[in-house]
């Protein structure tokens, strides 16, 4: 998993992960380039094991070899715990720079340092990896640096910084800014400023390339705008005077930078802009008195990693002369790691470098720090608790001292030693990939700044000694590129792509090494791979193509070295090349050697035929490799016949006719060489036909295209066609599809205008018989498709059309019939083809629709299709009623009655009408345009009553066009009482509908009454309940629109019907039914209580002659149930009233407290004129204080138009709050007041407090306590504490009713304005919870 920065000059896809213990194969460069034979290559491959030195690679002896599972489970890097003992906040004054209390990474590597250096160099990496780095001179920038020194006295270059721009600082204080095209965009500063500040000693560009920081040798710092070239800041007091700036670095935060001076101190620079003034605040992070810091490096994250959890800490690494520190600048200053050095060469340079790497599927930053010849790697992680942990990775021991360390990507690092040699190292395997000498760069060193010569050289000897080799500001990396600043030039280094590395070896004639390097790319073992993307198989395919090109190049060179080209058969070495290619399945290379070495084109065909012919003749399935060989053979034959070389290039023009003739002669051979007696004639054509008939015929078709006036080629063409017919027609081992391919091929050839072929027409008749009259019915669709392709290719001219149609109908080839009928425009007959074809019968609807709707067909053709569809309407409906209905509605809308008459089958008619009329069937029909008569709808309803009576009501609810009287007669005819009742209710005859439902209920009750004792699961009781529920629903739906007498005419008969069975003796009714009937009767009473007054119900019950004679026992339960309901509702009403009173009391208390609360001004001056209110006391001006704390003079508020007159009183609004967009509620209230939408009762609470004119201190001058908009906002928030319905409206309602004698918000005797009471709103919901407790 790699995370490389994008850059236009570097391909960023990296190779697959390699194992750390993998040893790359190496090849001997000393071998003579003239020995490029197969034997030499094999010897070098066998010699690879001799290059491994056990001592050098330090391979230990093991008792038990590791298992595959243990190897696969090894982690990518060492994950050794690294304990840090200084997690406290950074306090520079209390940190002892010479303390070694923290655990040290170096402590685990301590020992005799002479044993740690590897005195022996690695094997020659060029033979393993080729040239890994590409370095080039930036000529444009280099020339302009020299020109600036000569023309404007810019001085020598001293520092470089690279982002999307390139900045170069000079010794005379100028900063030259170049773009990516090496064009000079800006020249910042001047030589006069340089004379004052000294040379530029450090540069830094921020992330978005908009700002440049320049540090100077005399200690000043400047900030420039890179867009406009303006000087934004000149900082002279950020650090102690008399010290040079060694480093200055932007962090990821554009307002934060870090600088390091020659006194060894580190400062944090914070850039701010207040009231348009740019400032810089400096904070000391590390004092040089505690140990001099000579290298700093903040952690920079790429844009795609900006949300990484580690970036919030803004980590900074610092290297002093004695130890390494990693601190976090955010959210507060904290030390996360201290690491003391071991014994070091005092002249060695401390180096730091960050990079994000992927370890164990997680991306985290890794810090590389080194001094001398040891590089340590620390992985920084953040755990779930937010703490940072540092894990030690494997360190790197070198045999040279370093002066620079640069990450080029997460796997590859570039090191610069003290003798100016670049070393490219693979981090994981620690293998040196390449060494590059860069002394020609003439690298710029920063020694003078470390010695602070510009300020008098007041630095320590230790720092001056380190500065001898310091080149921090001369090397900068960006986007996978490294820039080196020389005294007169700028060089750039980058990784070569994998293809460049191979090509570089080829240009130097290192063919063996190039092939070995390509093989390492193919196997995923190469290092520092750039430019290979995609999955493993895709990468292998790309590399394999390049390897084949190398092999061709290798073979071409080898063949050119032959003593006599074209006599390859006498040279044993080159036969071995062919043998090697064949054994290693390099068929393309084998064909290439035959063609180029001896101009032999037939031998490769014979070798490939000998592989694929035996299994095909035996009827066996070919293996994948044999299929590949067969495909190569077809392509090779096609190339030869077309005059092209295989796989690339062209055959020499003088050989093209010869090669074509040889290939044709080869194909038409009667027998193969070394043929057995059992071999059939024409084996090569037969084999190719069996392998892939269609592709072989395509090859021949492409070849025949090139035949124009070549008489011999035309003869070959006719000869091959005769052989094809003889082989395929006279043998039964070819499938109908293969035979059809042949005759389709022939039909296309015969249809050409310049055709010279002759084919006996009787052969086409034989093919027609073969396809239409098989011995069995197998492969019916295949035979039909073959014949259809033959006809479409022009073969129809070879047949008699009437005979063809007869045979197609006999064979049930309906697609053939359709093809023929369409040629004759007999579209009506095509409908029969669709209806008879079971595979395509449902497509007939789309066909008819297209013919009737798409223009281009004559009226007679459309009429014939229309008539045919009408004649087969019954078949169409039985096939798919929905599609048939849609077709009729679209094209037969005026003949629906005719269609209905044709549908004699009642079931089909029912399905058709349901699809046509019922919108739930999903048919998109415009019923208004259809204009169906009511009689058709009623006919459908009658069919629905017959075939699906349970769906009648649901269907009637969605139907529109039917007559009620006729429909009622239909439902009465089929005794569908519920449907009849529904229709009567729709008609308006509520009483008639009720009588029908009542009759059904009484009949169900009679069934129960005359029934003996049954089981507990009695279905008749369920019927009673369902019927009663439907009857109650009928009464409830219509009671709202009836008067009291009409309501009683509905409900009392229903109650009487339910109570009638209970009047009988208890012995006649089972006990179970008695309890159930009482429950149902109670349900009726509860339902009718909403529409009939309770006294009327009781009076009606008591007037019953049965109960009037003292038999009240049967209705005792009913009356007690009604009383219980009354008690429940009364208790609920009292509880609700009590809660509302408590709610009102609590709300008024809070409102009173907020109104009487004193005001506390935030300041003693007017918020508009900014003058203290006491100074204007002599003026006749009021002082106005708002609850928000703002204070104003009334004169100032009037000038700002913050007053308004409502009902003759002055109302004030706070100027600051009303003009701010942050207080949305206040703005709404203010706008409402200005627009006059607030009622007078609300306005009484809205004005602000006024102070008296005479006492400006704290006295309130109004006689009535009122609310300003801020208080209104607070009150609204108070009201919203209850999530109920309109709390303010509720309180208003209660306050209006408080004046009445009896507090009854639910009383029906309220005055007219109370008719729209909040309590009568259907959305009113009472939340029975105690009021919330709020803190004042």
TrEMBL record:
Biased composition (Basic and acidic residues): 1252-1262
Pfam family, one: zf_RING_Vps8
Keyword Lipid metabolism tagged: no
Segments of this protein annotated with the region Disordered: 1236-1264
One GO CC term on file: late endosome
GO molecular function: zinc ion binding
Biased composition annotated in UniProt, kind: Polar residues: 1239-1251
GO biological processes: endosomal vesicle fusion; protein targeting to vacuole
Domain RING-type, first and last residues per copy: 1166-1218
Keywords: Metal-binding, Phosphoprotein, WD repeat, Zinc, Zinc-finger
WD repeat residue intervals: 193-234
Keyword Zinc: yes
InterPro entries on file: Vps41/Vps8 (IPR045111), Vps8_central_dom (IPR025941), WD40/YVTN_repeat-like_dom_sf (IPR015943), WD40_repeat_dom_sf (IPR036322), WD40_rpt (IPR001680), Znf_RING (IPR001841), Znf_RING/FYVE/PHD (IPR013083), Znf_RING_Vps8 (IPR056939)
Role this protein plays: Plays a role in vesicle-mediated protein trafficking of the endocytic membrane transport pathway. Believed to act as a component of the putative CORVET endosomal tethering complexes which is proposed to be involved in the Rab5-to-Rab7 endosome conversion probably implicating MON1A/B, and via binding SNAREs and SNARE complexes to mediate tethering and docking events during SNARE-mediated membrane fusion. The CORVET complex is proposed to function as a Rab5 effector to mediate early endosome fusion probably in specific endosome subpopulations.
PANTHER family: VACUOLAR PROTEIN SORTING VPS41, VACUOLAR PROTEIN SORTING-ASSOCIATED PROTEIN 8 HOMOLOG
Assigned protein family: Belongs to the VPS8 family.
Protein name (record): Vacuolar protein sorting-associated protein 8 homolog
Source organism of the structure: Theropithecus gelada (Gelada baboon)
